[in-house]
């Protein structure tokens, strides 16, 4: 049980946190705010005391995304922005591979992951030994790793990519054939966007693999003028049934630029809440698939982490140097 003693919803805290609540009031009932406000207030105070920043992925819940995060975005934006901070402490409100990426890019800083159990089915689908076997099987074929991999795996590959730059990264290698791991569906999607031959691994995201093309067609039958936007971690029949495919950041841009009247976001459920707060005229249709790993990060675990400066992310130096090179190579590839 985490210690939240002394954190009460006082009139002073209510007044101080009111502007923060305003940002998310469209997606959070007023009755819930008194439970979150004292933690939000204390986290924001401790951040200043510790010279800390919080990086939050688009899948975090609104009280984290709008309440305490300093930098929000997709995996690519979080990796890129992690290089720009002058904070002493980085708290990653995301999953473990994201915290490892932040640590690779900030070896001298303290990087915290509030719950070390926040894993990822993709990252767990492949090991460094698997990559070495692939290299033996396909000698000379360059290897691209999705950032959703461990530092051990990143250390074995030529370059990383995210869903926001995968096609550009594959084409940047100038090779006729590329191994792309571990997400089979992202690899298949990239193969439809480039003439480079793609060799895929059979990893899947446990959240996105549950969507089906039939489900999308059923939603279209139930809701008029539905615009369907899907994440490339979804199976091919889902992507074929979608109007637009893109990373979480590109999905956000799609909604905020085009302001469609009704949208189905085929991705993790909290995304819709976070964008709904900024796109009041759009109605969000939500099949609610939650990522159990992302949801391990809560205001209580973030507060605990800031208080104790634990759990810290550590990466063995011989792995870190090689893994960092793969991430840095990715960061110089410009997305279209
Ligand atoms: P992006 O935010 O990079 O699109 O990735 C989605 C995801 O599943 C991260 O875990
Ligand atoms: Fe991994 Fe999927 Fe969760 Fe993203 S949503 S962290 S890819 S399991």
From TrEMBL:
InterPro entries: NadA, NadA_sf, Quinolinate_synth_type2
Residues reported in the UniProt entry to bind [4Fe-4S] cluster: 120, 205, 291
Requisite cofactors: [4Fe-4S] cluster
UniProtKB keywords: 4Fe-4S, Cytoplasm, Iron, Iron-sulfur, Metal-binding, Plasmid, Pyridine nucleotide biosynthesis, Transferase
Sample GO molecular function, one term: 4 iron, 4 sulfur cluster binding
Binding locations of iminosuccinate: 57, 75, 146-148, 163, 231-233, 248
Pathway assigned to this chain's UniProt record: Cofactor biosynthesis; NAD(+) biosynthesis; quinolinate from iminoaspartate: step 1/1
Domain of life: Bacteria
GO cellular component, one term: cytosol
Reaction catalysis annotation: iminosuccinate + dihydroxyacetone phosphate = quinolinate + phosphate + 2 H2O + H(+)
GO annotation terms (biological process): 'de novo' NAD+ biosynthetic process from L-aspartate
One Pfam family of this chain: NadA
Entry's cofactor comment: Binds 1 [4Fe-4S] cluster per subunit.
Subcellular location: Cytoplasm
Main location class: cytoplasm
EC number of the protein: 2.5.1.72
Family: Belongs to the quinolinate synthase family. Type 2 subfamily.
Function: Catalyzes the condensation of iminoaspartate with dihydroxyacetone phosphate to form quinolinate.
Name of this chain's protein: Quinolinate synthase
Originating species: Azospirillum brasilense
Gene that specifies this protein: nadA
């Amino acid at each position: 049980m985490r210690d939240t003693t002394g954190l009460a919803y006082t009139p002073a805290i209510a007044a101080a946190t009111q502007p923060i609540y305003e940002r998310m009031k469209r997606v959070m009932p007023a009755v819930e705010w008194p439970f979150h406000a004292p933690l939000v207030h204390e986290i924001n105070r401790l951040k200043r005391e510790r010279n800390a920043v919080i990086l939050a992925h688009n899948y975090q819940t609104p009280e984290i995304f709008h309440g305490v995060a300093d930098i929000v975005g997709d995996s690519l934006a979080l990796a890129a922005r992690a290089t720009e901070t002058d904070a002493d402490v980085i708290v990653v409100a995301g999953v473990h591979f994201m915290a490892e990426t932040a640590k690779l890019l900030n070896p001298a800083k303290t990087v915290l992951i509030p719950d070390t159990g926040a894993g990822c089915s993709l990252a767990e689908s492949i090991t460094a030994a698997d990559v070495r076997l692939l290299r033996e099987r396909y000698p000379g074929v360059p290897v691209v790793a999705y950032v959703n991999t461990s530092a051990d795996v990143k250390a074995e590959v030529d370059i990383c990519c995210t869903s926001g730059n995968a096609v550009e990264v594959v084409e940047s290698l100038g090779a006729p054939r590329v191994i792309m791991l571990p997400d089979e569906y992202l690899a298949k999607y990239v193969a439809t966007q480039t003439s480079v031959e793609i060799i895929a691994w059979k990893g899947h995201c446990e959240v996105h693999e549950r969507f089906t093309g039939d489900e999308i067609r059923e939603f279209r039958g139930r809701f008029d003028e539905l615009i369907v936007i899907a994440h490339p971690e979804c199976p091919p029949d889902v992507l074929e049934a979608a109007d637009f495919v893109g990373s979480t950041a590109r999905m956000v841009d799609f909604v905020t630029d085009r302001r469609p009247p009704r949208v189905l976001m085929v991705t993790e459920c909290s995304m819709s809440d976070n964008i709904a707060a900024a796109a009041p005229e759009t109605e969000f249709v939500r099949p609610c698939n939650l990522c159990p790993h992302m949801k391990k990060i809560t205001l209580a675990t973030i507060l605990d982490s800031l208080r104790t400066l634990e759990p810290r992310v550590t990466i063995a130096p011989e792995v870190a140097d090689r893994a960092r090179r793969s991430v840095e190579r990715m960061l110089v590839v410009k997305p279209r």
